[in-house]
Amino acid sequence: MKKRILVTGGTGFIGSHTTVELQNAGYDVVIIDNLSNSDANVLDGIEKITGIRPAFEQVDCCDLAALEGVFKKYPGISGIIHFAASKAVGESVEKPLKYYENNIMSLVNLLKLMPEYGVKGIIFSSSCTVYGQPDPENLPVTEEAPIKTAESPYGNTKQINEEIIQDYIKSGANISAIILRYFNPIGAHPTAIIGELPNGVPANLIPYLTQTAIGIRPCLSVFGDDYDTPDGSCIRDFIYVVDLAKAHVAAMARIVEGKNADPVEIFNVGTGNGVSVLQLINTFEKVTGVKLNYKIVARRAGDIEKVWGNVDKANNVLGWKAVHTLDEALLSAWKWQQQLRERGIM
Ligand code: WQD
User: Fold this and answer.
1) How far is the CA of 204 from the centre of ligand 1 (A)?
2) What are the boundaries of each domain within the chain?
3) What pTM, to 2 d.p., does this model score?
4) Are 148 and 320 in contact (CB under 8 A)?
5) Architecture per CATH, 4-184+240-270+309-323
6) Pocket test for ligand 1, best of 204, 227, 235, 282 (most atoms within 8 A of CB)
7) pLDDT in tens, 78-96
8) Which residue is catalytic, options 27, 99, 131, 154?
9) Which of 124, 133, 135, 188 is nearest to 158 (CA)?
């Protein structure tokens, strides 16, 4: 009998890639998504890749009654992976209440329902944003690094949600949790059937870069080259989205097989390598042969100067390691952008 997993935000970028890997690992996946930042045709893509169409419910996790209806309709959920959240750093500064209401209420509702419906564990999609700008001696950053005051309401909701999970379990709730702190997810599935497709003008680097490369955007702005880094541009830990998806499968196995050592475990999910924005651009040009039109502009408010992960714990305890190179991840992003053009989507 396949174990049933509920994936919230499952038609989104990371959620859809994780659904593919969960199905490949033999799980029965139920997706709930309110489609506020994704499209239901992603379900066709998932089915095309795996041959299995996941069950889908268009539900907002903030709607407790509707959410409970999903738990009733799909009994025997073994675990939840919670991706559904608003995630644009800049927008969170303009609309903080939207972020606090959506990102916190959705998690609280799930936690409320889990014990009632016998759901063992939850995997929470967190972010390296919780570290803020690590001190130089704390780079690469480990899970024990101090949590710093969030640079944005988005980052603050991640910190608050981690605390909510810890407090709830500490209060005696009979559930367990694994918190995954992502670094920068990039790329697309190797089939180029699913990938990152932000609504409107992309806020984050890779979609803006590939849209510039294909001619949708005239020029990529690099937000600052006067940072204290070797080439002056910011440094990040760019992780291939399929590697990230597989980290969720490893974490879910750990929960459903009861192997988690503590009721709450935290793992950094990255490559462990720091790459600068300009290095990434040079790598993109090298692997694709496409000359990118970009210019250096002023720094973006709220940007962290340099952050990359120490991923020993994920490698040694979770038994997961990122295996794809930056070259491969960037090539997959470019192939995806070309597919979007061929399919007349953009
Ligand atoms: C990366 C680097 C920019 C766009 C945020 C969240 C994180 C996650 C990913 C959700 C920075 C530079 C970017 C551009 C640029 N969110 N850049 N020109 O800010 O590291 O992380 O998004 O999953 O939790 O914090 O990602 O891609 O926006 O920026 O120069 O047009 O690229 O300055 O140095 P970020 P990003």
Assistant:
1) 5
2) 4-184+240-270+309-323
3) 0.96
4) no
5) 3-Layer(aba) Sandwich (3.40)
6) 204
7) 999 999 999 888 889 999 9
8) 154
9) 124
